[in-house]
Amino acid sequence: MAEMNSIFGSSRGKEDGEHWLTVSDLMAGLMMVFLFIAIAFMRHVSIERDKIKDVAVAYQQNQVAIFDALNEEFKKDLVKWKASIDEKTLAFHFNSPEVLFATGESSLNPEFEEILSNFIPRYLEVLETYKESIDEVRIEGHTSSEWGVDTHPDDAYFFNMTLSQNRTRSVLNYSYLLPNLNSQQRKWIKSSFAAVGLASSRLKLNADGSENKEKSRRVTFRVITNADIQIRKIVDGL
After folding, report:
1. Parallel, antiparallel, or unpaired: how do β-strands 218-225 and 134-142 relate?
2. How confident is the model over 21-36, as pLDDT tens digits?
3. Tens digits of per-residue pLDDT, 132-141?
4. For residue 198, what are the contacts with CB-CB under 8 A and spacing of at least 6?
5. Alpha-carbon gap, residue 204 to 40, rounded angstroms
6. Would you say residue 100 has pLDDT above 90?
7. How do the residues of the chain divide into helix, strand and coil, expressed in percent and rounded to 5?
8. Residues 62-73 pLDDT 10s
9. Degrees, nearest 5: CA angle 69-225-195
10. What span, in angstroms and rounded, lies between the C-alpha atoms of 100 and 107?
11. How far apart are CA 55 and CA 218, in angstroms?
């Protein structure tokens, strides 16, 4: 038997060699498949990351364009209206509380009505170019933290919350009903403008960190773009 094996060789050794060669080929094949999957996934992530980067760049460019357009349109009015535009937040601030409302009241002062009659049609015209990139225009009402001498701070906050909400509704109502607006402008106001009372949640502070009650009382028109919505759609698709 040994002599025959020495002459003809052992078939068992050959079979084992063929078996291990097949397993090696299989493992190599699987490694290649996993490698292709990993490369494809990394390419997909890279493409989506580039999309998010493109949206972020477009958002920044759009932000700058809206600010420049607003500033160009209203730069001659800012001082006389005691208003300002924040480049980072696209917030158009009306900063003169004595012009806006009487103390503790939500009805617009005649001077503020006159300003809004001038401001709103021009504001809508400027934003018309950027409507596709705007998610919302938020009219924000801000107050100081005070209410009455003996009022608890928690009560003052909620009293001011109600007051600021009523004030922004008054601003929105007056703006919507301006006679020189067309039907498309009113339709856009109805679908995209929101009246939000923020009370004393976003106070203006002095250099020493104390509350600046005068500057805290303000009304703001803030443009909110839809860049975050576009990015969320990309992320959800990953």
Report:
1. antiparallel
2. 576 766 777 787 777 7
3. 889 999 999 9
4. 140, 141, 142, 161, 164
5. 51
6. yes
7. 65, 15, 20
8. 889 999 999 999
9. 95
10. 9
11. 32
